[in-house]
Amino acid sequence: MAERLHNTQAGGAGSTAHEAVYRRLRERIFFGGFLPGRAVTLRGLAEELGVSPMPVREAVRRLIAERALAMQGNGRVLVPLMTRDKFEQVLFARSALEPELAARALSRLTPQDIEVVAHIDEEIDKTLVNGDTEGYMRGNFRFHFTIYEHADAATLLGLVESIWLQFGPFMRMAYGRVGTKSLEDHHQAALEAMRRGDEAGLRAAIRADIGQGMGFIGDGALERLQ
Amino acid sequence: MAERLHNTQAGGAGSTAHEAVYRRLRERIFFGGFLPGRAVTLRGLAEELGVSPMPVREAVRRLIAERALAMQGNGRVLVPLMTRDKFEQVLFARSALEPELAARALSRLTPQDIEVVAHIDEEIDKTLVNGDTEGYMRGNFRFHFTIYEHADAATLLGLVESIWLQFGPFMRMAYGRVGTKSLEDHHQAALEAMRRGDEAGLRAAIRADIGQGMGFIGDGALERLQ
DNA sequence: CCGGTCCCATTGTGATCACAGAACTTGCAT
DNA sequence: ATGCAAGTTCTGTGATCACAATGGGACCGG
Prior knowledge:
The structure is a homodimer. By secondary structure, the first copy, chain A, is mainly α. The first copy, chain A, has 9 helices and 3 strands; from the N terminus they run αβααββαααααα. In chain A, strands 1-3-2 form a 3-stranded antiparallel beta sheet. In chain A, strand 2 (70-71) and strand 3 form a beta hairpin. In chain A, helix 6 runs antiparallel to helix 7 (154-178) and helix 8 (187-196) packs antiparallel against helix 9 (199-221). The longest helix of chain A has 25 residues, at 154-178. The radius of gyration of chain A is 19 Å and the shape is globular. The structure holds a DNA duplex.
């Protein structure tokens, strides 16, 4: 650890060490690289990522602000546990915001954009038959956010990202328990609605997808946690 | 600045320096202590608040994560400007989330709680006739969040707090321009609905209050900014 | 009087160190 | 074998320093 460069600040905006650490941790949280309840330490992450504790502190602080990590009263940092209350609030917030994002994206989606999304959905189907949980989560994330990003609504998108960060670890744990084999999503309905330019249909498909997917993992895993 | 204590960490959870800095900055943002576009510097805030730059860095990082502050490409930190797009997204998100929070709070509100809210509304009326913009903003904040806090929905509350942080500075600037004299809110309607236990009425009153208040400042100030 | 160029002050970033408190481990006594 | 206490290690926090890059201002040439 002593041979690390003294100052690797390269100058530009997104190229700081804490930004890189933030993105790596965020990826792991989104896709289930951390289990709920897992404790993390600044020095531990720093050594693991090959940086000093300082940028890790800033990245962790940011993730705590986004509710992706939590700090206990004694200062220890951990991946938050899911509660039934929290799960239900996440479900509500997703249903309130994500259909709107999809609807706003609709008018801006070119046929090529829609085919990109369709291709992502095909990838998802492969992960489902293979039982590849992490692959499924990555694909599902890309399916939703590829659409949402076209809405050009950074404020709403930020809220939704914060919500996804809050249920990512739990989702992974839940899929680990109940499996993804019998999972049926509403992605096809969403794709057809997009191709038709049917805003109401797209809203309904996204809402159904959220309700179905969240119900799937909620039923399977939540009952066991209190 | 040299006579500062070397380490003032008192131990408990909420008593760290960066937490205190965070709360002070957050207050100023909520109630219009910073103007949009205002640039802030870590060392400047540190000296102003009597701490070293370190806790300021963490507090500012957190506020950036909550979108209350923004970082330009060159690393400079400033209070974000409002755009028409952003304003419209804020309006949508508030309308989607806040009536729900109020509705969830309703069953938990005791008559005494409602009278507390009614008293806050009386204070607001005083600030309106006095033209006390900051007092109005503090009162309006307390009116809404006193209700919302009773919903016991920390996840949703966090989203709403983040949204308020994003329009606080703009709201202050807007009121400074158009004044608060002719402002009519829907707080009385909300209070009556709460007293009746009328959930639909409360939802409608909150939604109307948001739409009216945001329309008030949006019409007055937004047209001038692009 | 105006425009460009160089220089210095200021800024965020990251490393390192010191410190206090919490937690875990170890050892001892019962 | 078990419970408790003391010591040690580990944790987050905050201060200070070094550094690179940006920005503004002064100075000079036109």
